[in-house]
Each structure stands twice: as structure tokens, then as C-alpha cells.
Amino acid sequence: MHLAHPTWPQRWLWLAATAPGTLVLMTALILINITVHRARHRGPFTAGTVTLLRLTAVVLLTGAAADLVAENARIALSERLGGGSTNLLGYPVGWVFGAFICFVVAEMIKRGVLLSRELEAVI
């Protein structure tokens, strides 16, 4: 759908429909980049790596809420354009799966941190 001259409310609804997911994804990608950079320079098995991975997981979980906001904005925009309501809100499987993977990797790294500390205590 293309509007030649959208009104300001239509522009705001379009922004509300597209921005939330993009912002969450960009934030998660930045956190992953920071995590990888720190792991390369300070070692992967640190408490900081675990914290950053958990923070990334929480950010990814907010993507589910972002999807809800975006879908409501799309519905409102569709109703303003006379297209009727198209309530197709699905399950946020991608966001939840990504968060789950980050939590799992964080727990694996945490176990590596504990094993590393145990090894240092032995030697």
C-alpha cells in the first residue's frame, strides 16, 4: 500500500508499526557485538560475558511487546485507511527463541566461569 500524501497521524502510526521491532533488534545486535568484542579481548569465560548475554536475552524478550505495539499500530492504520481491521497477531516465537538461546549460552558460559575458577584454585 502506498499513500501519496499521508496525514501526520498516519505517519505516526506507520512509525509505531515499524520502529519498535527494529529498535529492539538493533539493540540486541549492538549488545551481541559488544559481547563478542569483550570475549575476544578479555576471554569468553567472564562474569561480564554472562551478564551481557542475559541482558541481550531480556532485550530480545521485549521484542514480544514490541510486536504487540506494532500490530496494534498496523490495525489502527488499516482502520484509518478504510481497510478494516486485520488482527493477525501471532506468537512472538522468534523473539522468545532468541532470548532462550541467549539464556542457554549464558548458563553454559557461567558453568565455564565456575570451572575456570575451580581450576585456578587447584593450581
TrEMBL record:
Keyword annotations of the record: Membrane, Transmembrane, Transmembrane helix
Segments crossing the lipid bilayer: 12-33, 45-69, 89-109
Protein name (database record): DUF2975 domain-containing protein
Record organism: Catellatospora methionotrophica
